[in-house]
Amino acid sequence: MLTLITGAVQDRSARGIAAAVSRLITSGRLPAGARLPTVRTVAGGLGVSPTTVSEAWRNLILAGAIQTRGRSGTFVSGPLPPRARLRYAQLSGARIGLPRDLSTGVPDPLLLPSLDVALRRIGDGRWAGSYLDPPVLPGLEKVLRERWPYPPERLTVVDGAMDALDRVAGAVLRYGDHVLVENPAFPPLLDLLQAVGATVVGVPMDAAGIVPDALLRAVRGCRAVALFLQPRAHNPTGASMDESRAALLANVLLEAPHLLVVEDDHAGDIATAPPVSLGRYLPDRTVHVASFSKSHGPDLRLAAVGGPAHVLDAVADRRLLGPGWSSRLLQGVLLDLLTDPDVTAQVAAAREAYACRRSALSDALADRGVTAGATDGINLWLPVPDQQNALVALAAHGIAAAPGAPFCVTPLPGDHLRITAGLVADGHDELAGMLAAAASPTTRGSGRRDLAHPPGWR
């Protein structure tokens, strides 16, 4: 088997080794259940470091291609159903039957504004228009443009942030294109990029977002077509970019005039940080997505997309062959919500409540010696010595958390869990005790303490 693996590897990087072994598994030459040689054996056969092979193996484990069985070794996994191959599906694996679900990453329903008044005001049939009417209500477009962090050449409304990312990816990406993303990144985005056949390159982050020097290396290392990023309340780390960081990143991207920036401002009005966009510096090559799911209601299924005409026109034209437009009735509801002073006050109160919940949980963890990322949004990024053991430890208390591995493009130093702190209205001290116990090195049983954040984390 060692000869089979070494003979298939042309590129001796971790990515190249993982790709070669994946091809052997897909073709059936490495059958399900086959025991793989040890990391050191493969490293010796390829003439690379064991660290390189370990990274390749971890990528294959994240993809579900292989699995470890402790001291018994590493084995080729059996065939997975299509949904089980998705990173997104891995987020829900630990939540089954647990009474307290902090794995979801969704807003607290009690902090969302009521739709009753808006529905009564606009539910009179006035929105029943023609297929030839503009896809965006003129009044809503006016309000959206006033809120936009830079003047977009075109603006449209689609069915949520992921719909926006899907449609932009479909318009600008081709099979094999290199795409830069944050590491860690949102699992459904990674699933989407994999589905379109993109080659994904992760770029390290710190507390202000993508690290400029790391972005420069990535830009120089490949001819990337696009950069996907979250400017505020990054999911899962909570990092938010400021204007100085945006300016630095825009300056780096001057070296790649062909590259399109796609920003997913998924947290919207519940983000504590002010709106920021690389579109202020690169308006002709920045697509900005503004979601209203977490602030005004996930079931509105609405997000606005603004950017250069050549991208937005392609998105709008393709939609004409499908849904045509997003519900103008729901657009009318959103317009009413965005212009109602009472709703504006409710959303501001929700933003403050989420900030208080994050701070309370983060501070209680800090009192126990655990530093977690929780600077914005509704999530907390908790470093743990061993992801699986930490999940089991929390499950014993009836708590479900999201595993960190599906968020990672390439492995980070140390394991993590994502905790939806925005759903924790009280009992922060008690919960922090459980989380700190899960983050303790004794949970792993090895005595090793590794609470490292991604490289450069401040």
UniProtKB/TrEMBL annotation:
Any one GO MF annotation of this record: transaminase activity
Residue numbers spanned by region Disordered: 438-458
Classification via SMART domains: HTH_GNTR
Domain HTH gntR-type: 11-79
Signal peptide interval: none
Pfam families listed in its UniProt record: Aminotran_1_2, GntR
InterPro entries: Aminotransferase_I/II_large (IPR004839), HTH_trans_reg/aminotransferase (IPR051446), PyrdxlP-dep_Trfase (IPR015424), PyrdxlP-dep_Trfase_major (IPR015421), Tscrpt_reg_HTH_GntR (IPR000524), WH-like_DNA-bd_sf (IPR036388), WH_DNA-bd_sf (IPR036390)
Keywords: Aminotransferase, DNA-binding, Pyridoxal phosphate, Transcription, Transcription regulation, Transferase
Family membership: In the C-terminal section; belongs to the class-I pyridoxal-phosphate-dependent aminotransferase family.
Record-linked PANTHER family: HTH-TYPE TRANSCRIPTIONAL REGULATORY PROTEIN GABR
Protein's name in the database: Aminotransferase class I/II-fold pyridoxal phosphate-dependent enzyme
Organism phylogeny: Bacteria, Bacillati, Actinomycetota, Actinomycetes, Micromonosporales
